[in-house]
Amino acid sequence: MTAVAPDTGRLSRALLFAAALCAGITVANIYLAQPIIGPIAETFGASPQSAGIVVTAAMLGYSAGLLFVIPLGDSLDRRKMVGTLSVLTALLLVGSSLAPSLPVLAVLAGLAAVTTVVPQILIPLVVQLADPAQRGTAMSWVQAGLITGIMGARVVSGQLAGLMGWRSVFAVGAALTLVVGLWTVRALPGDGEREPVNYWSLLRSLPGYLRREPGLRRACLRQAGGFAAFNAIWTTLALVLTAPPHGFTVAESGLFGLLGLISAALAPVAGKMVDRRGPRLVGALGLGVLAFAALVMILGTNSLIALLIGTAAVPIGLQVGQAANQNAALSVNPAAGGRLNTIFMLSTFLAGALGSALGSAAYGAYGWPGVCVTALVFLALGTFGIRRVR
User: Fold this and answer.
1) For residue 264, which of 4, 23, 10, 6 has the smallest C-alpha distance?
2) I need a surface site. Which of 6, 124, 211, 311 has the fewest CB within 10 A?
């Protein structure tokens, strides 16, 4: 189906560093608007709720990119894809910085999210180039870049907006994306000659992989349970932090997200564990850490210490689980990594959206303990993906 693919064992440290840096810079583009909805609303004379359409558009755009762009990595030269997508993303972010109205900004931010799926193109390539015995470690470095970009984007975006206005956030994002993206292109190997594959054939093959591969299904189930639990807690965390008796401001509560950077530092450790112990055991460990965090955080309505412990543990559990589960999913067939990653990430993203929605509903009906119980239910469902594949 595809002709010449890069050989395993060709992953240099320089290439791995470039992929990790590029992943962190580009994934941040999805989250740039989250901390600056207030200033955007003021500029266009809209309510914060209306300005939230920019964040929604970015999430929808990323979903579209996962489904419709990533599979092309199994057919096109991924080096050229990274370069093209980096340029397109930079142009769309520049347009976002100059947007004359809220609807235009929402459209441009959404389109930029479609093209900012570069990290999910790099991960299958890294897996394919790495020695099979070191795939978990290699993937974990790229995931460390991802989590750093996700957590750091919210802090950096708010600081830039305070210094130079919200438009500077998109302008700086454009510059960084272009420079780092093109630098990464120079470090990446070409895919060589590849047989042309009909685009719709790529998309039609997705259900078949999910149907035929029990290892893929179980990896997706473990990750879906963990990511839904993570989002149930992470989406509502600011609500309990700003409510009595804690009473933090929104800005202060946002700094709690910096605890998530601990998980970035631990990513290589998780990768080595996958290589030595296997993805099934490490995936179960990730679910266990998340369950521990949810149980501790039940006390968080009145205990700040419980919230601090849980806030540090939740991203760690998610990172450990993803290092294992994504490795398991892509190892099913590294040559079809683009399509396998599409299935894995799309199921993860949809589960995360469900976790956010049900977590918010649980908070409204039962308060913070209801959120933690909801997270535990998702984690219990994720354990059905731990059984050994026969």
Assistant:
1) 23
2) 211
166: its two tokens: 């919200």
Identity of residue 326:
Q
Report the topology of domain 206-385.
Growth Hormone; Chain: A; (1.20.1250)
- Ordered by start, the domain boundaries in the chain are 13-204, 206-385
CATH number given to 13-204: 1.20.1250.20
- Cα separation, 89 vs 80, in Å, equals 14
Per-residue pLDDT of the chain (390 residues; tens, 9 = 90+): 444 445 555 678 888 899 899 999 998 898 888 778 778 888 999 887 688 788 778 888 888 898 889 888 878 888 899 999 999 999 999 999 999 999 999 999 999 999 999 988 888 888 788 887 777 778 778 888 888 887 778 678 877 887 888 999 999 999 999 999 999 999 888 766 666 677 788 888 888 998 999 999 999 999 999 999 988 888 788 778 888 999 887 667 667 777 777 777 777 787 788 888 888 889 999 999 999 999 999 999 999 999 999 988 998 898 889 888 988 998 888 778 888 988 998 898 888 878 878 888 888 889 999 999 999 999 999 999 887 544
Burial of 354 (0-12, 13-18, 19+ CB in 10 A): middle
- Global pTM reads 0.78
How far, in Å, are 215, 224, 282, 368 from residue 136 at the CA level?
Answer: 16, 19, 11, 35
Give me the helices (H) in the chain, please: 13-27, 37-44, 48-51, 53-68, 78-97, 102-115, 118-129, 135-164, 167-187, 199-204, 206-212, 214-242, 250-254, 261-277, 279-297, 304-330, 337-382
In the block, which residue shows the tokens 């909805």?
Answer: 37
Q: Cα–Cα distance between 359 and 228 in angstroms, integer?
A: 9
Contact 28, 150 (CB under 8 A): yes
Distance CA 133, CA 302 (A): 46
